[in-house]
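job 3f2a | input accepted
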Amino acid sequence: MNMLNLNKNWKMHEEPMKWNKDFLSVVTSQKDGWYECDLPVDVRMPLLEQGVIREPLKADYCFESEWIERRSWWFTKEFSGEGLWDDNDIIELVIEGLDTRSDIFMNGHYIGTHKSVHYPFVCDVKEFLNPGKNMVAVRLTSGLEEIRECDVADIDYVVSMEVYNGRERRGDKRRAFVRRPQYTCGWDWGPKVTTIGITGNVFLRGYKNIAIRDVRVETKEIYYGESKKDALVEVSVNVEDLNLIASKECDLKIVFEKDGKIISEEELDNCLLTSGANYIETEMIIPDAQLWWPNGAGKQPLYHVKICAVSREDGHEEKWPEFQYGIRMIKLDTSPLEKDNRKFEITVNEMPVFCKGGDWIPNDFIYARVPDRKYEILLEEAVEANFNMIRIWGGGLYERDLFYELCDQKGILVWQNFMFACATHPDHQEWFKTLMRYEIDYQTKRLRNHCCIGLFCGTNEVHWIYNPIDNPGKFKFDFTQNEPHGLYIANTLAKELVRQNCPSIPYWNSSPYGGKTTPNEDTVGDIHWWRNAFMSPHMEERIEAKDYDKIQAKFVSEYGYVGPCCLESTKEYMDGQPLDRKGAIWRHHSNVFEKGTVETAIAKNYADNPEDLSIEDYILYGGMVHSLMYEYSLEALRFKQQCYGGLFWMYNDAWGEVGWTIIDYYLRRKIPFYGVKRALAHRKFTMRIVDGKVILQGLNDTPELVCANGRFGYVSFDGKIDMTRSVTFHLKPFSREYVLTEAVGDHDFQTGTYMLYVDSDEIDNIWLRTEDNRRLKYERSDVRIVSCRNDGENKKITVMAKGYVHGVYIKGDMDCDDNYFDLLPGESKTVTVRKAAGKELEVGSVR
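job 3f2a | predicted structure (847 res):
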C-alpha cells in the first residue's frame, strides 16, 4: 500500500449556510477571508488563533460563538500528483473524521456526501487525479440544519435535554438524527459547543493488484501445562482481488514476534483469490505464551504481528500495518446465583476480575485539538489510581487509536459503548439503519484486535430512561417492534455485527440493562445508581455515603458525586471573573445537578454556614466530601461478594467546572483522586458493620499470595485506649474474602472505633467509619514530620501523630503517591513527593 498524508497546509473559509455544494467554484475563487490550518481541525481552532472568537470553555464565552453552527465551512487542500503511483489499480481518498455533514470534491468533481463522524469517508479518486496540481475540497456543516420539526416528531420528541433540569441553552433534540458527537450539543456537565471540522487524518492510499482490507486475530484456547502455557490463535486476513473479472493467486505470511525474535510464523502459499473479498484463515500455536492481564492482575506482554501478501502475478507485496497483540481470553459470566440473581463477572484467562475504574468522556469540547500527551497522562493517572477498566460513554466518540494502544500497554480493560446516549433514535428508517450498520461494522473491525476491549455495549440509558414502567406518564410513547426508537440497534443490529466480526468479545444490550421487569434491576446485569443517590430529590440521599452499603447490584457502571477543582484551575476557567459562588458564570461552570449539594454536604461533614466560607475552604471541604463519597462507595461495592464491578461517573473532563471528575480539564488532580486510589488498591482491607457484627474483608487482585500481619481492635481517637490484638491473614490470589467476623463490642464510637494496623508499607491501615467526621469527638493532634529526605529527584516525607488526624495533606500543587489521607493514632506514614527533591515541604490537615 502506498500512502500520501494530506494533513498539512489546508485552508478554511466561512460562507452562508445556503451556499450548498453547487457553490464550490464561487468559494474557491474567493481571494480573501481564508484561514490557514492543519489537521485535525475544528473550525474554532483557526478562529481562536486569529482572535475572531474567545476561548469558548472559559467564562461564558461559549455563547459568543453559537453562530458557528449556522454557517457553512469550506476546506481546501492542494497537493502535487507528480509520481503518484500511476501503476496502482485504485487510489483512495480517506477522510477519517468528518464532523458532520459533508460534501467532498476532488479537482472540482463532486465525489460524495458523508453524514457521520463515526466512520471514514473512502472513495477511489484515481480517475480524477492530475499529474500536476490537485485540490481536495470539503464543505462542512453541523448536520443539525437538515433535521425538521416533523423528523423530531417521528420519535415523539423523546430526547433528553438540560432545559428540563433548569439549564437553558443546553441540548438539541435534532441530535438524535445526526451521527455527530452528541455531547457537543450540551450536557449536564458542559455547554453547547457544536463542533464542525475535519477531525481525523486525511490521506491517499494506493493499491496494485491486491489489497489487505482487514485482519482479525483471536485467541481461541490456552493450553495450561505444568511449567508453560501454549496459546492457539486464529488469524483471518481479508485479501481483496482488485480485478473485477479475473482470479489470481497470492502467498500470505503471518509472523508473531516478541522482543525482536520470531515466536511463530505461518506461510500460506498459492492462495486462490477470486474477484473482491477473500477471507483466508489459519490457526497458529504461540509456544510458551506470555498472557496479557489487566492492571494489578499481572503483566501486559504484547506480541508484534506482521502480515504480508505477495501477488504471484508480479511479486507485488501488500503489507498490513504492523500492530501489537496481547494474548488473553475474556468472558462475561452471567451464570445463575440464588433466586432470580445472576452473576455479571468479567473473567480474563479464566480468572475473575473485579472491574474497577471510571467512565470516560471526550477530553475537550473541541476534541480535535486534544494532544496525544493528554491521553498519555490521563491513562498514566488511571494506572496510578489502580484502575483496571474504563467505560467509554455512549454520548461522545470512539476514541483515536492511541487511546486503545495505551490501554493495551497499561492493562486497562475498555467497556466500549456504541455511540447512543439519552435519546431515542429513528432506527425504523432504512437510511438510519444503513448508517448504523456502516458505523458498527467499521468500529468492531477496527477495535477487535485490541486486547483491552472487554465488552461492547449497545446504548447508554436508552432502555432505562424511556421505558414506561420506569417513567410512567413522562413520555407519551412506547417501544414497539415496528418503531423500536433505537432499540433495534442495541437488541439486534449491534449483536449481529459483534457476533460476525468479533464473537469472542462479550456484548451487552445497554448500560444499564438487566432484569425481568425493568432494565436497571439489581438482580441481573449492570445498573446506574442515580435515583437513590446524587439525582435523588431528597438531599439527604444525595450526601449520605453510608447509603452505598445498601446497593445489591451485580455491577454498577455509573454513579457519581460532584466537587470543585483546585483554585488554580478554577481561576483559569473563570478567566478573571469574580469567584462569586452565587454568580451566573460560577453557575455556568457548575454541574446542572449540583443544586446546592456541595455546600449542604460541607455543612453535614465539616462547617456551619458553608456559604460564608472562603474559596480556599470551599475547595478543601468540598473536595474532601467528594473524596469521601467516591472512596466509601467504591469500597462498599468491592465489599459486596456478589458485586463484580464498580465504575464511577466520571474520570476525566471536557472543560472546567464543579463536576464529577477526579482529574480536571487542565490535568490537575482533584482531592478525590486520592480517595479513589486508596479504594481501588490492588491489595487492601475494608471494614463494615453488618447485622451487629464487624466484618473485615481482605482483597487481593494480584496473582501472588499476600501474607499480612498486624493489629486489630478498638482504639480511641486519642490513642489512650488500645484494645488491639495481633492478627495474621493470608489472602489468596484473585480473591475477595471476609477474613474476620466478630460481634460489635460495647464501645463509644464517637471517641474511637475499630482499627486495623498492617505491618506493611504497601497496604493501608484502615478504620471503621460509623459517623460523619463532625460528630466524632477528638482533639486535633499535631502532625509531626519524622523525616524528610531526598530520593533521587523525589522526596520522601514521613509523618506521624499521637492521635487520629483527618485529611493530612502536603501543601502546594505536589505530585504525591498519597494525599488527603487519615492518620491513625501512633501511625507513621511515608509519602513520596515526585520531583520535589530540594524543596521545602509543608504539611496541613483538615481536622
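job 3f2a | DSSP finds 14 helices and 45 strands in the chain.
job 3f2a | closed
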